[in-house]
């Protein structure tokens, strides 16, 4: 659509693709973890980062699908550095196992892309008895980030390069209740609304990045940034739990939504572009700085969420 072509201060727009926003950037020597790299913008993010020379570790649930995607990337880019490691973000045990395995490999870690997510699922509890969307979209990434943070700090010091943590959120991170996340209602099936639960989990992604950025700023010599982003409305299989929406996406999505190449652009921009250097606690959309929801600007809510999440991952 015509409004996709309006460029922002970065020089990019909603119509820019991941390849376009990373053109000319050399990521050789960098290592990135991309969660959820077996579908949608996760695949494209992994592919484009590898295209720019980044060593990409795909954290995925389905190892068979991951192997096929790795082979596909290598067929088109024989020099790509791609590894596949099993990761189920809805399970704290799986997250801890992944982090232990990665840290034991003695690999550096420059970029962590918390991309994996599920949307508008029927009510279900995770293996750890947490509402599934909140467990997958937020708690799993919260725990993963904490377990990998020391490796990122060490890498930043040794390589003298800024580390970047990128949380993929959504435009649906605005909730109808003004106080934001209802900590005492997360696992409550009564009155459950799958889209509201999704919005809550994505608000948590933004608040997590904001609070992490605040904490990292307080650490002397820390060279790690944490930002969140809205990839845009993309025609992917995230809508599969809502047949009407899924049908609309299939019929008209290509005319009013971003394709996967455009959808992965902001993620790749925030992860790799030099324009983002030094920026932290920010929110991006269409490869430009943007305003997040008013609820995500509450520092006290971000601190409460951090405490709540910390208590959950310790149990």
What does this structure look like?
The chain has 315 residues and is α/β, with parallel strands linked by helices. It contains ten helices and eight strands. Helix 4 (92-104) runs parallel beside helix 5 (132-159). The longest helix is centred in the middle third of the chain and has 28 residues, at 132-159.
Could you list some keywords that capture this structure?
315 residues; 8 strands; single chain; 8-stranded mixed beta sheet
Sequence-ordered SSE layout with sheet pairings:
Layout: H1 18-21, E1 31-35, H2 40-51, E2 55-60, H3 63-76, E3 82-86, H4 92-104, E4 111-114, H5 132-159, E5 163-168, H6 194-217, E6 224-230, H7 243-256, H8 260-263, H9 265-272, E7 283-285, E8 288-289, H10 299-314
- Gyration radius (Cα, Å) is 18 Å
Oligomeric nature of the chains? single chain
List the total number of helices: 10
Mean pLDDT: 91
Instruction: Give the overall shape.
Output: globular
Structural class by helix and strand composition: alpha/beta
Distance from first to last alpha carbon = 48 Å
Tell me how many strands there are. 8
Task: Please outline what is shown here.
This protein has 315 residues and is an alpha/beta fold. Helix content is 43%, strand content 12%.
């Amino acid at each position: 659509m015509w409004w996709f072509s309006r460029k922002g201060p970065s020089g990019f727009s909603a119509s820019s693709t991941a390849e376009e926003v990373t053109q000319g950037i050399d990521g050789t020597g960098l290592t990135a973890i991309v969660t959820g790299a077996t579908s949608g913008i996760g695949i494209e993010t992994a592919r484009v980062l590898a295209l720019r020379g980044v060593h990409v570790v795909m954290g995925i649930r389905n190892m068979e699908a991951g192997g096929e995607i790795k082979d596909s990337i290598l067929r088109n880019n024989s020099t790509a550095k791609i590894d596949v490691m099993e990761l189920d973000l809805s399970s704290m045990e799986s997250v801890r196992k992944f982090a232990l395995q990665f840290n034991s490999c003695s690999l550096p870690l420059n970029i962590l892309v918390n991309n994996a997510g599920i949307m508008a699922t029927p009510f279900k509890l995770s293996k750890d008895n947490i509402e599934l969307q909140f467990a997958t979209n937020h708690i799993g990434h919260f725990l993963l980030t904490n377990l990998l943070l020391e490796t990122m700090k060490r890498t930043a010091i040794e390589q003298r390069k800024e580390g970047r943590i990128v949380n993929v959120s959504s435009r649906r991170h605005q909730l109808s209740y003004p106080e934001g996340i209802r900590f005492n209602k997360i696992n409550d099936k009564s009155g459950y609304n799958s889209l509201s639960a999704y919005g809550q989990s994505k608000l948590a992604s933004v608040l997590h990045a904001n609070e992490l950025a605040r904490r990292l700023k307080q650490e002397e010599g820390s060279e790690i940034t944490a930002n969140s982003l809205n990839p845009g409305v993309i025609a992917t299989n995230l809508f599969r739990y809502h047949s009407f929406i899924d049908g609309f996406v299939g019929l008209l999505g290509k005319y009013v939504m971003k394709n996967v190449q455009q959808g992965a652009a902001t993620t790749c921009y925030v992860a790799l572009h030099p324009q983002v250097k030094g920026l932290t606690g920010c929110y991006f959309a269409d490869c430009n700085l943007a305003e997040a929801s008013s609820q995500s600007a509450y520092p006290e809510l971000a601190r409460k969420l951090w405490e709540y999440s910390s208590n959950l991952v310790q149990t």
